[in-house]
């Protein structure tokens, strides 16, 4: 089999960074009042700025597919003619612009410089970006493709705007209940960000700069054991099952804000670190991975709240990953879902600090129904 290397990484961030005190200027005020949960959530998640593909008036500045295409084009900024050499496009998102056609072909539509090529669209949430990478990695490794691009992008800001919740708020007022949305719905508004990232995966390292050899990628799901924790386009019933938006009337879809993103916060806190990092323990044992050899540890964090939980797990289980080896840019980029790991790796890759032979461990948890992806890279 061939080897597979990440030879270039690029990202696209829309517009200017939005600081915490300007968020509601973009997302709006629910029921005309500032959020009660905003300060609490921001204090816990540690995010200082994020990016939105919209104006303060709510007008879209980019589509999701467009941002992905812009990140891909930036891979070839110094050699745009190479766009025609791409033989695979693997595009992931949890927030496509439409249900049909697939997100991947919509991205391809923004890339007229490319040829008629294979396009795939891994779905999911945070792990989807890693699924896109794994498809590209395997395609190159078995020799089917030579120049594959994987990308991940998110445009969630439109569904975070206050207007998405106003109908439900009015229903609550009519019923003389608390006019504020439940914490499970409100808290994700202060965490999510827009943007895109892209990797170029080839069967040979870049002769002019560093590359990252993909040693392995491994994933797992605990959906056979756990109910959904984060969901959209559905509602959770008392038995833990999800009821699809297709099974609600149009009026109920609006009244219950079915297309808002919801998070079972209690389930998240109990499960997200425990499940994933026990799996990492198993991978360490099965692959004979020496954690002392890891130079960079890149965990995708939805909130800095989980950083201490991961650190405690490592200490309790005698896993050596000193904090100086950790890297995240959550504070400056926000949680960009499937694209977060691309944002993180891009910053490390283009920092000028990597040395040949160093090893990078990527860990991506997904709370939707508790899935995880792990990847080991070697600088070459």
Automatic annotation (TrEMBL):
Keywords recorded for this protein, A-Z: Acyltransferase, Transferase
PANTHER family: 3-OXOACYL-[ACYL-CARRIER-PROTEIN] SYNTHASE 3, BETA-KETOACYL-[ACYL-CARRIER-PROTEIN] SYNTHASE III
GO biological process, one term: secondary metabolite biosynthetic process
UniProt-recorded name of the protein: StlD/DarB family beta-ketosynthase
Domain Beta-ketoacyl-[acyl-carrier-protein] synthase III C-terminal: 285-363
Segments forming a coiled coil: none
Family matches, as NCBIfam families: PRK06816.1
GO MF: acyltransferase activity
Protein origin, superkingdom: Bacteria
């Amino acid at each position: 089999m061939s080897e597979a290397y990440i030879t270039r990484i690029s990202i696209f961030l829309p517009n200017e960074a939005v600081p915490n005190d300007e968020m509601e200027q973009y997302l709006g005020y629910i029921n005309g009042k500032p959020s009660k949960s905003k300060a609490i959530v921001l204090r816990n998640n540690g995010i200082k700025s994020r990016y939105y593909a919209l104006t303060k008036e709510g007008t879209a500045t980019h589509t999701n597919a467009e941002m992905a295409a812009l990140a891909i084009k930036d891979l070839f900024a110094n050699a745009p003619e190479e766009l025609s050499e791409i033989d695979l496009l693997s595009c992931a998102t949890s927030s496509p612009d439409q249900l049909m056609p697939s997100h991947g072909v919509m991205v391809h539509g923004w890339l007229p410089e490319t040829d008629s090529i294979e396009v795939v669209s891994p779905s999911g949430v945070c792990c989807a970006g890693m699924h896109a990478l794994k498809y590209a990695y395997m395609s190159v490794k078995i020799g089917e493709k030579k120049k594959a691009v994987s990308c991940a992008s998110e445009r969630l800001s439109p569904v975070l705007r206050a207007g998405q919740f106003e109908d439900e708020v009015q229903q609550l007022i009519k019923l003389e209940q608390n006019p504020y949305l439940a914490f499970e719905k409100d808290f994700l508004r202060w965490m999510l960000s827009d943007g895109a990232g892209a990797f170029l995966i080839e069967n040979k390292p870049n002769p002019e700069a560093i590359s990252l050899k993909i040693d392995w990628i491994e994933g797992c799901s605990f959906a056979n054991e756990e109910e959904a924790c984060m969901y959209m386009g559905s509602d959770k019933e008392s038995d833990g099952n999800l009821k699809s938006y297709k099974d609600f009337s149009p009026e109920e879809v609006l009244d219950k804000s079915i297309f808002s993103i919801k998070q079972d916060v209690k389930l998240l806190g109990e499960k997200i670190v425990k499940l994933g990092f026990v799996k990492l323990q198993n991978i360490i044992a099965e692959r004979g991975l020496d954690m002392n050899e890891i130079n960079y540890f890149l965990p995708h964090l939805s909130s800095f709240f989980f950083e201490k939980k991961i650190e405690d797990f490592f200490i309790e289980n005698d896993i050596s990953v000193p904090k100086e080896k950790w890297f995240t840019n959550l504070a400056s980029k926000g949680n960009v879902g499937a694209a977060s790991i691309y944002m993180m790796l891009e910053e490390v890759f283009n920092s000028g600090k990597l040395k040949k032979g160093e090893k990078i461990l990527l860990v991506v948890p997904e709370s939707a129904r508790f899935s995880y992806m792990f990847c080991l890279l070697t600088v070459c």
